[in-house]
Amino acid sequence: MADVKAFRGYRFAINKADELGAHCAPPYDMIDEALIDTLYAKDPHNVVRITQNRKETSDSANKDRHVRAAAFLKEWIDKKIIVQDDSDSVYIYRQQFTAEQNGQIVSHERTGICVLVKLVDFEEQVVLPHEYTLSGPKQDRYELMETTNANTGLIFGLATDDNGEFYTMIRKIMDSASLAGTFTDENGVVHTLYRNVDTALISQTAALMKSRSILIADGHHRYETALRFYRDRKNEAFSHVMMTLVSMADPGLVIRPFHRLVRKSNQGRVVNDMKSELAKYFDLEPLGKISTEIVNETIAKKAATEIVFWDSASGDLTGLRLNVGGEEFLSKTMPERSGNWKRLDVSKINAIIINGILELPLDGHVLHDIVNYANDVSSGALPLTKQANDFYGGFFIRPVSISVINETVKGGERMPQKSTNFFPKLYSGLVFNKMM
Questions:
Q1: CATH code (residue 228)
Q2: Residues 60, 154: one domain?
Q3: Range list of H helices, 79-193
């Protein structure tokens, strides 16, 4: 189903493999102004000057910084700071990292193949989104593409792979590839890029993808922007977009949850006893006082508890499991949503706690204002519990599986906001696709 092909990528010219890190940066949407300044100072040829060019007081419009980005890209190519590979290639992007799982630090390795993917509408069910996008970031990325005629960042796609054949192919390509660069980022993630020009392996990869679909993990804005850009210009030079594809069978595929701490606010209804309110919708199981160990142990078990609730008033942990009242509430709310979607843990929190108990609308602004999100329990969520007076409490959930995400999307729905955090992110600067 998916149409993929090799390409002659543009890469930073480096003398040693470990020099690549000076040029690379996190994806554009993970970079704030402070980090922009840090990356500017790190190296005069850091990719941030292209992907997230710094705003200047002389700018009259947002596009001005993208004009500067295009000038940097052109200059670096002209001066051979960035050079194009001499033949069609596929690029293997390996990331070695550790992640907290159930309170334990576990080592992982995730490998993806960077190729060009044919742009198609989501309705064709070949490339599928799992979350919604905003117009502002899409316009921003459109202006960058308009000035550079290039794919400057990597879209992260997940290829269906029930038999693991695609994962095996990626590893096979990596085994015979040449090292193109490596670096370790500030979080200890080791990023390594390989290049392979074996035409037989490239053909086999393309053939394998003909029977597979792609779920976008990260990069929805960039994909939709590239598709719009192609549709606007009706030029086959823009018919494909650069994407790193990871097998859904990759054992290093890590999806972290977003635990939620709900703030007290003058918005909506004021609740004096959150635990009593929750009892209308959930069966409650006492778990003890707040501790990392209890939260992680409960989440790790395939037990009756669906969500672990920390009550700020008492410091107690309580296991929550949907009861008859909760089932009835979900059946009546959001009729446009399927039963499976409404029974996602994130949906239960949004529908029952935010909308039902606090009587707040489920829009992005409200959720941003009253919810603090944390990926891990010990370093992310637990420190916030010391500010008990600021919160009604916290809700700790299990990570959603790739199969659940895939089933939701295949059913024609997208995941609720802040449902998934694919870790680690794909960095920019490893390879570019210059379309014209």
A1: 3.90.1530.10
A2: yes
A3: 135-148, 165-175
Half-sphere exposure of 368 (CA within 13 A, CB side): 3
Q: How confident is the model at residue 103 (pLDDT cuts 50, 70, 90)?
A: confident
Copy the structure tokens of residue 417.
């906001």
pLDDT mean over 247-269: 95
Residue 406 covered by a domain: no
Beta bridge partners of 114: 91, 244
Let me know: does 225 contact 138? Beta carbons within 8 Å. yes
Backbone angles phi, psi at 224, to 5 degrees: -65, -35
Would you say 90 and 114 are in contact if contact means Cβ atoms under 8 Å apart? yes
Q: What is the mean pLDDT of residues 203-210?
A: 98
In angstroms, the CA 353 to CA 309 distance is 11
* Neighbouring C-beta atoms of residue 104, cutoff 10 Å: 10
Q: How many CB atoms neighbour CB 282 within 10 A?
A: 24
Instruction: With a cut of 80, say whether residue 364 has pLDDT above it.
Output: no
Name the residue range of residue 360's domain.
Answer: 258-398
pLDDT at 425: 98
Give residue 182's pLDDT: 98
User: Residue 33 and residue 105: Cα distance in Å, rounded?
Assistant: 31
Q: What is the mean pLDDT of residues 96-122?
A: 93
- Amino acid identity, position 235: N
Phi, psi of 294 (to 5 degrees): -65, -45
The count of structural domains within the chain is 2
Strand 214-218 and strand 127-128: the pairing is parallel
| Domain membership flag for residue 408 | no
Q: Are 116 and 214 in contact (CB under 8 A)?
A: no
Question: Does the pLDDT value for residue 102 go beyond 80?
Answer: no
- Alpha carbon separation from 31 to 99, 383, 425, 427 (Å, rounded): 21, 24, 12, 11
Cβ-contact 65, 51 below 8 angstroms? no
Q: Does position 303 have pLDDT exceeding 80, yes or no?
A: no
Torsion-angle region of residue 406: left (phi > 0), alpha (psi -120 to 50) or beta?
Answer: alpha
Mutual angle of helices 135-148 and 63-78, in 10-degree steps? 40
Q: Three-state DSSP class for 388?
A: helix
What percent of the residues of the chain are helix, what percent strand, and what percent coil, each to the nearest 5?
40, 25, 35
Residues 55 and 204 in one domain: yes
* 393-433 residue pLDDT tens: 999 999 999 999 999 999 999 999 899 999 999 999 999 99
- Distance (Å, rounded) from C-alpha 258 to C-alpha 376? 8
